[in-house]
DNA sequence: CGTTGTGTTGATATTAATCAACAAGTGTGG
DNA sequence: CCACACTTGTTGATTAATATCAACACAACG
């Protein structure tokens, strides 16, 4: 069978998740991710309620903690690290639908079963909520339900933007969009240090970028190389990219550039 | 400039929407769309509250009633007809992100401005809510907020499925997926009449299908022709397709088929 | 009855995928 | 410490799926 689309690649075997039930009542108070996450709608005096509902879990790099098609019993909140979210076709073709960084609430795209898989790109910490405990929490804190709706709305906006990218942008436009999106990601640029102002970190491999943008690793590599020769970017180290000409990349990402192809 | 991707096509000019403020207090009671929409969480005795918040509007075929980038002041609920939702690139390339049929709530993918445009495919009726009135309604009926979160979750699942389609499926797989999705749409098949059991109606043009699936009209047309010669479908009339071999199409849609290309 | 919009089909062009080779970095174990 | 396997990334040659360009059929419509 000659596949025209991206060939199947071996997928990391799902391994059991390491659970470390550190439910200290004050865990949420000192949580550095709170300011970025939906938890911030819960007033400080009620954080013990939140802490009681959450189980804090370590996830090793490369481990899956959500698997497409399995019963959706838990919701997660990322407190450290980053995960890739993806869907698979029967023959192994993969589409990464997003990356979940600190503060991301996971499980919105859920019916009875998970619609996607999640795998840690680096060592992670996540808070796990059972469906019933989250439901109870939402009933007690309507502001959190409202906040989740906001989050879901934002994700829908992002999903539609990604559909536009996947359906209608050229390879170069996709890479440019990806770089600009990463550069815009709060906290990704070390903006405090001017010399690093436009250096973005990429915790994912070329294969991940390819599967996120609907391309092959070769096309991703070639596009980045060409951006480099064109002076649009520099690659100071593996997993790092310096944006040298943000305006040009932004234009290209918007599909405004005539030499986009 | 030689565009590699789908060339720009003329876009229907936005024209003002026809407003017909039929706010009869009992409009919601007799609304045929209620059973399909988020409104169904509001108890019958409170329907006058709902009716007071909604303005019923007729939209002519071809008219836009939501425009990408404009301030998102209103939310809509489709009570009759169907709309296409889309995003545009600067040079006119278009991605249709979805079709909104009866019962669809529009405006979830919203920040301060609309993230997409909506244009009627056929004469429509929609209920329009101002942001403030919807907010008041949600505050009074928390079940509706909960219901909206469910709806948003389902849309996210659908969006991820569409990303998989756009990023990783072949042209034939995309068309097959589209046909099966349409056939699965509740109320689209005249299932009551056995001889029409597998006939689906398509209110959109080939151009719309192409822009929804990230293809060109020619590729859509050719794929359908080939399905026809392969006996998978029949085209009894314009805007109608009979599914002759649903199993084969379902397999192809899942990417399981070796001759997918 | 011409005009316009929609859809089909054919010929050709082009982007990005595929196939292939290799370099650099990482970890393992002898 | 080094041979070895393995992963990741880059680059080149070629192929193939789909876009583009073009012509035409047909229906709706003024």
Please tag this protein with its features.
4-stranded antiparallel beta sheet; alpha+beta; homodimer; DNA-binding; 261 residues
Shape of chain A: globular
Name the beta content range of chain A.
Answer: 15-25%
What class would the helix/strand composition of chain A place it in? alpha+beta
Biggest interface, residues from each chain: A-B, 51 and 51 residues
**Largest sheet: number of strands, sense, barrel closure of chain A:** 4 strands, antiparallel
Counted by DSSP, the helix tally of chain A is: 7
Helical content of chain A stands at 25-40%
Q: Helix and strand succession of chain A? A: HEEEEEEEEHHHEHHEEH
Distance between the termini of chain A: 30 Å
Strand order of the largest sheet of chain A: 1-8-3-6
Average the pLDDT over all residues of chain A and give the rounded result.
87
Low-confidence stretches of chain A: 7-16
Assembly of the depicted chains: homodimer
Radius of gyration of chain A over all CA atoms, rounded: 19 Å
Q: Compute the number of strand runs of chain A.
A: 11
């Amino acid at each position: 069978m000659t596949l025209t689309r991206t060939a199947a690649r071996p997928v990391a075997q799902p391994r059991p998740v390491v659970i470390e039930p550190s439910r200290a009542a004050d865990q949420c108070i000192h949580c550095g991710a709170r300011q970025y996450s939906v938890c911030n709608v819960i007033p400080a005096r009620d954080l013990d309620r939140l802490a009681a509902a959450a189980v804090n879990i370590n996830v090793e790099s490369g481990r899956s903690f959500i698997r497409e098609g399995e019963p959706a019993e838990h919701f997660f909140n990322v407190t450290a690290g980053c995960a890739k979210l993806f869907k698979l076709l029967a023959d192994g073709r993969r589409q990464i639908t997003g990356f979940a960084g600190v503060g991301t609430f996971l499980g919105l795209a859920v019916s009875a079963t998970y619609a996607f898989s999640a795998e840690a790109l680096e060592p992670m910490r996540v808070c796990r909520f059972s469906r019933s405990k989250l439901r109870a929490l939402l009933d007690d804190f309507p502001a959190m339900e409202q906040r989740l709706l906001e989050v879901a709305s934002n994700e829908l906006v992002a999903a539609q933007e990604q559909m536009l990218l996947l359906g209608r942008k050229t390879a170069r436009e996709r890479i440019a969009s990806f770089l600009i999106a990463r550069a815009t990601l709060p906290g990704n640029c070390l903006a405090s240090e001017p010399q690093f102002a436009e250096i973005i970190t990429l915790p994912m491999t070329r294969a991940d970028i390819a599967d996120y943008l609907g391309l092959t690793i070769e096309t991703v590599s070639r596009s980045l190389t060409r951006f480099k020769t064109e002076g649009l970017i520099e690659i100071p180290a593996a997993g790092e990219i310096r944006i040298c000409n943000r305006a040009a990349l932004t234009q290209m990402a918007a599909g405004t550039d005539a030499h986009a192809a």
